[in-house]
Amino acid sequence: MPLRVELKPFERIVIGQSVIINSASRTCFLVDGEVPILREQDTITAETADTTAKRLYLCVQTMYLKNDPEPNRTACLGLLDELVREIPDCRDVIAVVAELVSKGLLYKALKEIRKLIKRAPEPSMV
């Protein structure tokens, strides 16, 4: 079943490794097929990944969008271990993320990591 996507003027969406930028008017289109999709508002860049939770999100986001989890699996596991030390009261969510990543359910893992981002300590200002 195709995914219906509506974009606001000048909104961006990442489909696979391509970024689509809408024109000046609202647009609706259908995406048919198995391809990773993220709205720009749901992406994190290397510059904005300033906490361990955000670095984990960026790592899993890369795994998801490139559709190739293996090159980043070790980094992902290291970040999960680091998060257990930083926010031990979130062990249950971290365990869910680890399980989703191991099963290849990366989009669902991203949704769970958003919960961790809200609970993670803010970066220190030096």
Report on the structure:
The chain contains four helices and five strands; from the N terminus they run βββββαααα. The radius of gyration is 16 Å and the shape is globular. The longest helix has 15 residues, at 52-66. The model has no long low-confidence stretch (mean pLDDT 92). The termini are far apart. The chain folds into two domains: 3-41, no CATH class; 44-119, no CATH class. It is of the alpha+beta class.
The helix tally amounts to: 4
Q: Mean pLDDT across all residues, rounded?
A: 92
The proportion of strand residues reads: 15-25%
- Low-pLDDT runs of 5+ residues are none
Rg on CA atoms, Å: 16 Å
What is the percent of helical residues?
40-55%
The largest β sheet comes out as: 3 strands, antiparallel
Helix/strand-derived category reads alpha+beta
Cα separation of the termini: 49 Å
Domain tally = 2
The 3D shape can be described as globular
Elements, N to C (H/E) = EEEEEHHHH
Strand order of the largest sheet: 3-2-5
Give the strand tally. 5
Task: Offer a few descriptive terms.
single chain, 126 residues, alpha+beta, 2 domains, three-stranded antiparallel beta sheet, two-stranded antiparallel sheet, 4 helices, globular
